Amino acid sequence: MLLAACGSSSSNTSSAKDQELNWMENSSLPSMDISKATDVVSGETMNNTGEGLLRAGKDNKVSMGVAKSYSKSKDGKTYTFNLRKSKWSNGDPVTAKDFVYSWQRTVNPKTASQYAYLLAPVKNANAIMKGKEAVSNLGIKAQGSHKLVVTLDKATSYFPSLVASPTFFPQNKSVADKYGKKYATTAQANVYNGPFKLTYWTGTSDNWTLSKNPTYWNAKNVKLKKINFKTIKEPQTALSQYQSGKLDATYLSGQQPKNYKNNKDYVERKSAGTFYLEINQKKDNMLRNKKARQALSMAINRNQFINKILQDGSTPAKGVVASDLASYKGKDFASVANVPSASTQDLAQAKKLWKQALKETGRKNYSLTFMADDTPAGKSAAEFIQSQWAKLPGLKVTNQNLPFKTRLSRSQNGQFDVVATAWGADFPDPISFLQLFTSDNSYNNGKWKSAAYNQDIANANGKDANNDAARWNDLVDAQKTLLKDQGVIPFYQQGKAQLVKSNVKGLIYFPTGANWDFSKTYIAK
Questions:
Q1: Do residues 375 and 404 lie in contact, with contact meaning Cβ atoms separated by under 8 Å?
Q2: Cβ atoms of 5 and 239 closer than 8 Å
Q3: Which of 82, 175, 322, 477 has the most CB atoms at less than 10 Å from its CB?
Q4: Separation between Cα atoms, residue 56 and residue 368, nearest integer Å
Q5: Are 479 and 321 in contact (CB under 8 A)?
Q6: What is the DSSP code (8-state) at residue 14?
Q7: Are 426 and 158 in contact, with CB atoms under 8 Å apart?
Q8: In 10 A of CB 243, how many CB atoms?
Q9: Higher-confidence residue: 118 or 212?
Q10: What is the pLDDT of residues 31-63, one digit of tens each?
Q11: How far apart are alpha carbons 151 and 162 in whole angstroms?
Q12: Which keywords accompany this UniProt record (predicted)?
């Protein structure tokens, strides 16, 4: 997961008169192609230069975007969006056809979009992605310039949240055709319909600039005139620039959160990202042994890891679904679907279960390799887990820290014993996490299987999709099944420690998807 922060190398902190925000990122901007971008930095930039039918808002609520109103059929399968009159940054009108073109381009196999799966609820999307159906048969139709009708294969309660994400934004076909392969590879090879437009970005530059978009339909309420982005990968460099007034905010890491916890500018953001351990159940009968998996989980003191090592606002994970992601009748999913024994330390019980597992599998001792990223956080996690598991009798743990791409490839190919991994929700619904662990999901790297779990997820996506109470119960039961069998080991929910200048007001942060919305941000006097 890529984190954001703030920066400009040339100017001091903006005055209220300038309405200029200096923002830093840990990574440069990879892509502005709505159909192809997958990372947080791209998503954040697209979220501020573009706008979909609906806009994401606080507390996982959506508000009107390009659509001024919409309605849903009784069976939950048909959405009709009525579009307001709005314009692209080049003056072209934004029409229903721009959404049709964008969605069709994304699901077209020739585009090779990694995020095309988000469109799976739309009628025929899966068949189109597999090359079995014509792109023109996607369930999205323009009825004139300002009415859009979307047909789904089945009712999907979280669909409004999906259409608020950048993957569902419109694209201008004439501009895409004009630039061809160069489309969306620079600031000028694109057009924008959001609060801001990208005015400087070479496609490879570490700096990029957003300027207020005068053609945006709600431009009168956008206060910032400019946002200057700069990539700074070294935390101490970012902190120094913040202290010298060249940045309006910066993320903290390592010892920095501990040192600045009492600073008036200190803020902690909770991410909807969960770190967990996957166990390769194809390796041998030891890792297939439920008691062995439970012992590995119960041996870990998550509070110690968070309070002594991370110190960044992270919290112990109650399950795989992040806390504060979704609620029903005032109750948070993570609390309702919690199985405490699957995510809390009980060393005495862990030792007992481990001994039983050794006996049941005919062993006196056991060796495993723990795989994690070669980042500072990955190495810290591996060293900590190794020290915790060393307390289990007869267990030898070897750490293996690898570059992210290598670790990801080996995880996907099942070349691991136990691996530390993470998932960040793309939209505020438990299914964003829980769909990962069905038997046939490609992200289920540990190959854990449960017929009951598969059925619960199928029911939530099928017969109960339009029944909020029944669907909620399906998903609660699914997570409890996963945790009771210790299909994975929940570790922690990611936090982000940050310093933000006190005169920066109106920041909107989302735990899911594209993290930031600057449309209401301003510099106070």
A1: yes
A2: no
A3: 322
A4: 43
A5: yes
A6: P
A7: no
A8: 11
A9: 212
A10: 999 999 877 889 999 999 999 999 987 777 899
A11: 14
A12: Peptide transport, Protein transport, Signal, Transport
What is this structure's pTM?
Answer: 0.80
Beta partners for 420? Answer: 277
Q: Which two tokens stand for residue 199?
A: 């005015």
The CATH T-level fold of domain 274-495 is Dipeptide-binding Protein; domain 3 (3.10.105)
Residue with tokens 């095309």: 116
Would you state the structure tokens that stand for residue 417, as one six-digit string?
């014993």
How high is the pLDDT of residue 8? 30
Residues 430 and 482: their CA atoms lie apart, in Å, by 13
Q: Give the Cα separation of 43 and 63 in Å (integer).
A: 18
What is the torsion angle, in degrees rounded to the nearest 10, for the CA atoms of residue 62, residue 66, residue 68 and residue 72? -60
Output the CATH code of domain 20-231+501-523. Answer: 3.90.76.10
CB-CB contact of 39 with 76 (8 Å): no
> Is residue 498 within 8 Å of residue 239, measured between CB atoms?
no
Phi, psi of 459 (to 5 degrees): -65, -40
What b-and-e string marks burial along 162-187, b requiring 16 or more CB atoms within 10 Å of the CB?
Answer: bbbbbbbbbbbeebbeeeeeebbbbb
Please provide residue 174's backbone torsions phi and psi, each rounded to the nearest 5 degrees.
-65, -35
Place 2 in a pLDDT band, splitting at 50, 70 and 90.
very low
Question: How far apart (Å, rounded) are the C-alpha atoms in residues 52 and 118?
Answer: 14
β partners of residue 410: none
Domain boundaries, the chain: 20-231+501-523, 274-495
Which residue, chain included where needed, has tokens 């489309």? 183
The answer to whether 49 and 198 are in contact (CB under 8 A) is yes
Q: Find the helix packing angle between 290-298 and 347-360, rounded to 10°.
A: 150
Quickly tell me which residue has 């994975």 as its tokens.
Answer: 488
Cα 430 to the chain's mean position, in Å?
12
